[in-house]
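Quick one, probably user error.
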């Protein structure tokens, strides 16, 4: 008894009772390994290490560890939570993020688990979890010490439970009420913005109350619009919709807060979002040739290159200097054919329309090196996860062809989820029924002048649990070649079960070297993208091991902490990037994302999205759009079609930006560009407006006299500007 009392007293500092929510972020213990006894409430975990829920276990002494681990904590759950709640039926346990899969025990009873699409703890994906526990579940001890034990299985990369919010609260009347803010903003004349939002619920309770909104200027705090509607009534199957418009006087983002107040219960639920603003100037009518100024192909391998050009259609394309074996389609601008002799072939592109003519010098580099500039494309993962199918890929290809290819975008990459469960009788990899005709799909992508990418793992299974390439490297490379694949993302995943427990560098390189050899036997160029989350400082050896790019991190998600945490942490890898081999801090999280069949607007604010694209361009990262290409809104299109920004990514020098200034509330990154120019990103990492400057006297600006704002495509008099919270000023400088 006395012991229990002491225990309870010891636990008090870990309780933070705030507005009916109990934070359970502190007090956790961690043990690597697996033992069913670790779920028992009476188990003595005093010998376990203290866990930090701000970071994965890799950063707590378990570098490169994949597999099982357990977390435990104690918490007193006061019955006042239940008493004060309107609905008293169940309690929610929210774990900010679990990497990758979990089983959660309350006082020894399993109360929830998450595995992959097969429900197996070894196959699944990281993400937030919310588990409901009935108030009368005997495992739940009101007003007493409860032991929460979480069994984790980490499939690869970062592992553990970590993130912002870990809390317990009652599932109240507002649980299951959602603001649907997924409609796009509409842009009217004279800076008018409009939007429809909806209040939705799956509850049968009839909600009736007021919905109000307030739009504020984050720079001045001024209220731009304040509005309330009295009849916000909704219930299951019958949402409440509200259309509103307002005038934004300047090109910047505003904050909106929505608050619904339910009259009967007096409870409220709020939601915030920001408003978009377009920086990329409209495309001109006169022809303009965009994108990289060089492209590499191996001798004897097929050339497929679409000249990216904008302007009033129809456009007519001509190429001077084409070596024998190549031809250009005059109306589509697609160069095809084969060149056998190595060499740098200088070409001149000419594009003409009714409004004029544009020319551009270009180097076709026939030789050993491919992927001379970072790949620009789309990958299915961040949008569709394992629900990707033929139709979604065709949509992506069609939309890329119509809206993005003219700015240099060219890869259509299928991530995990295309593979069958078993190979055919000859050991050949086959597709599942979502992809009835891979060769036909690839032919379609190629017919648009675009290239096709695919995904596999060196292990027996991919991270999503599909068939991997283990012991079939040659077979698969040949199949990819036959299908016409141009890009392979090769994901470590279950190779962890094949490699020794603590793989050394040779063990880490091995599966990639094996596939490298196999790809070299394929009939075409296949860009090779390593995905092993940065293990063994892959940036130091990825190029030598034959990679064209390599992931430097675990998986990204659509939050500021994930995107900025990854993006601003790349300096260590920067010196290793160069033409043909780039660091890959993971794919883009702009537009509509979802990692599965249900899509939502990225949770990044609009300024954070400008930061994301600016930073990834400076980092010379592959730019792989991860959104639903069938619904690219005007803002997202503006992000992806700014030719001066894309030019920073596609610069022929292939250098990656270095972190030049790192302060608590801002950072400056500098990328060397060809012709002695530089690109400079001034990033506001704080949540307040601030002016960020790089003085003319600074060493980085010595000799540079011309400054240009890349997003606005306007000249500047200084490398200085007011930068929005989590926003950026992206500047190119020349002499
Ligand atoms: C891993 C990778 C992701 C994606 C999935 C597919 O998590 O890091 O980018 O490819 O696997 O299952």
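Nope, works fine. Designed sequence:
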């Amino acid at each position: 008894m006395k012991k229990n009392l002491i225990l309870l007293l010891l636990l008090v500092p870990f309780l933070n009772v705030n507005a009916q929510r109990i934070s359970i972020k502190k007090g956790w213990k961690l043990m690597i390994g697996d033992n069913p006894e670790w779920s028992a409430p009476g188990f003595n975990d005093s010998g376990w290490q203290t866990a930090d829920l701000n970071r994965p276990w890799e950063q707590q002494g378990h570098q490169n560890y994949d597999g099982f681990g357990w977390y435990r904590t104690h918490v007193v759950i006061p019955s006042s939570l239940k008493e004060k709640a309107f609905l008293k039926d169940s309690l929610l346990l929210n774990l900010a993020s679990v990497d990758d899969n979990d089983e959660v025990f309350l006082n020894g009873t399993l109360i929830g688990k998450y595995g992959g699409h097969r429900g197996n703890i070894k196959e699944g994906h990281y993400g937030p979890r919310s588990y409901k526990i009935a108030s009368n579940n005997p495992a739940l001890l009101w007003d007493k010490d409860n032991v929460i034990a979480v069994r984790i299985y980490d499939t690869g990369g970062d592992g553990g439970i970590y993130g912002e919010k870990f809390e317990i609260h009652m599932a109240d009347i507002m649980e299951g009420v959602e603001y649907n803010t997924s409609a796009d903003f509409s842009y009217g004349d004279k800076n008018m913005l409009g939007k429809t939002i909806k209040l939705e619920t799956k509850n049968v309770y009839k909600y009736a109350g007021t919905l109000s909104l307030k739009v504020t200027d984050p720079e001045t705090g001024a209220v731009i619009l304040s509005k309330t509607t009295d009849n916000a009534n909704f219930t299951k199957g019958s949402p409440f919709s509200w259309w509103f418009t307002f005038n934004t006087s300047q090109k910047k983002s505003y904050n909106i807060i929505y608050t619904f107040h339910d009259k009967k219960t007096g409870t409220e639920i709020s939601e915030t979002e920001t408003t978009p603003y377009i920086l990329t100037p409209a495309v001109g009518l006169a022809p303009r040739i965009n994108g990289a100024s060089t492209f590499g192909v191996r001798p004897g391998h097929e050339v497929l290159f679409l000249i990216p050009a904008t302007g009033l259609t129809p456009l007519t394309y001509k190429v001077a200097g084409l070596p024998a074996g190549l031809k250009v389609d005059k109306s589509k601008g697609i160069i095809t054919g084969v060149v056998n002799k190595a060499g740098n072939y200088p070409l001149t592109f000419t594009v003409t329309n009714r409004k004029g003519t544009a020319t551009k010098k270009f180097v076709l580099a026939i030789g050993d090196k491919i992927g001379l500039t970072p790949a620009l494309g789309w990958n299915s993962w961040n949008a569709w996860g394992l629900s990707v199918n033929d139709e979604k890929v065709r949509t992506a290809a069609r939309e890329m062809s119509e809206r993005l290819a003219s700015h240099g975008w060219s890869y259509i990459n299928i991530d995990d989820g295309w593979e069958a469960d078993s190979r055919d009788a000859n050991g050949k990899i086959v597709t599942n029924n979502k992809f009835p005709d891979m060769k036909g799909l690839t032919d379609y992508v190629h017919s648009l002048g675009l290239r096709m990418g695919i995904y596999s793992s060196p292990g027996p299974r991919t991270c999503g649990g599909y068939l991997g390439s283990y012991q079939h490297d040659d077979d698969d490379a040949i199949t990819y070649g036959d299908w016409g694949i141009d890009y392979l993302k090769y994901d470590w995943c279950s190779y962890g079960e094949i490699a020794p427990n603590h793989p050394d560098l040779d063990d880490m390189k091995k599966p990639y070297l094996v596939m490298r050899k196999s790809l070299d036997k394929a009939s075409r160029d296949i860009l090779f993208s390593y995905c092993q989350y940065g293990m063994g400082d892959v940036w130091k050896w990825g190029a030598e091991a034959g990679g064209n790019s390599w992931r430097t991190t675990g998986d990204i998600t659509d939050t500021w902490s994930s995107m900025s945490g990854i993006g601003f942490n790349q300096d260590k890898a920067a010196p290793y990037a160069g033409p043909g081999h780039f660091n890959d801090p993971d794919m883009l999280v702009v537009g509509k994302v979802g990692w599965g069949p249900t899509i939502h607007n990225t949770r990044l604010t609009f300024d954070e999205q400008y930061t994301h694209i600016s930073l990834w361009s400076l980092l010379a990262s592959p730019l792989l759009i991860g959104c639903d290409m069938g619904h690219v809104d005007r803002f997202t299109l503006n992000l992806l079609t700014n030719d001066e920004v894309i030019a920073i990514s596609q610069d022929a020098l292939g250098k990656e930006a270095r972190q030049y200034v790192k302060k608590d509330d801002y950072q400056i990154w500098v990328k060397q560009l060809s012709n002695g120019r530089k690109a400079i990103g001034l990033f506001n990492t704080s949540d307040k407006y601030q002016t960020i400057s790089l003085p003319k006297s600074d060493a980085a600006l010595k000799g540079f006299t011309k400054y240009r704002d890349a997003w606005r495509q306007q000249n500047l008099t200084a490398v200085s500007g007011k930068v929005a919270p989590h926003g950026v000023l992206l500047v190119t400088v020349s002499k």
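The mean pLDDT is 94.
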